[in-house]
From TrEMBL:
UniProt similarity note: Belongs to the glycosyl hydrolase 28 family.
Organism: Dillenia turbinata
Coiled-coil blocks: none
Subcellular location, record wording: Secreted, Cell wall
InterPro entries linked to this entry: Glyco_hydro_28 (IPR000743), Pectin_lyas_fold (IPR012334), Pectin_lyase_fold/virulence (IPR011050)
Gene3D superfamilies associated with the record: Single-stranded right-handed beta-helix, Pectin lyase-like (2.160.20.10)
Lineage, uppermost ranks: Eukaryota, Viridiplantae, Streptophyta, Embryophyta, Tracheophyta
Pfam families cross-referenced by the UniProt entry: Glyco_hydro_28
GO biological process, one term: cell wall organization
Alphabetical keyword list: Cell wall, Cell wall biogenesis/degradation, Glycosidase, Hydrolase, Secreted
Protein name as it appears in the record: Glycoside hydrolase, family 28
Length: 111
């Protein structure tokens, strides 16, 4: 179980995957089976984040299909691309929570 974690006041410069939770990590693509268990992640806050992302995917919240992430909070997040003319985006799988204040890129959390 992971719960009651707060990351705050971080500034990124050309960082790969600035905000990430990955419960489906596999070091060899296609080699890992999906499990029916997972670490329960709840009440995680990402607050006052800014800066640039080296990857197009700036926010990746990839939670287990078996055990959802709950109580995720994105608060005052502004991430842009480190590459001129590029946009960054977010992707969420089974991640539930809220956004507070301005969040860029647009958040993808489920309520």
């Amino acid at each position: 179980m992971v719960r009651h974690v707060k990351f705050e006041k971080l500034n990124f410069t050309n960082v790969e995957n600035p905000i990430i939770i990955d419960q489906s990590y596999c070091d060899k693509p296609g080699a890992c089976k999906e499990t029916t268990r997972g670490v329960q992640i709840s009440d995680v806050t990402f607050q006052d984040f800014s800066g640039t992302s080296a990857t197009d995917l700036a926010i990746s919240l990839n939670c287990s299909r078996a055990v959802a992430c709950t109580g995720i909070k994105l608060e005052s997040v502004k991430l842009t691309s480190a590459k001129t003319g590029r946009r960054v985006f977010s992707n969420c799988i089974n991640a539930h929570g809220t956004a507070v204040g301005k969040v860029e890129p647009k958040e993808c959390l489920q309520k």
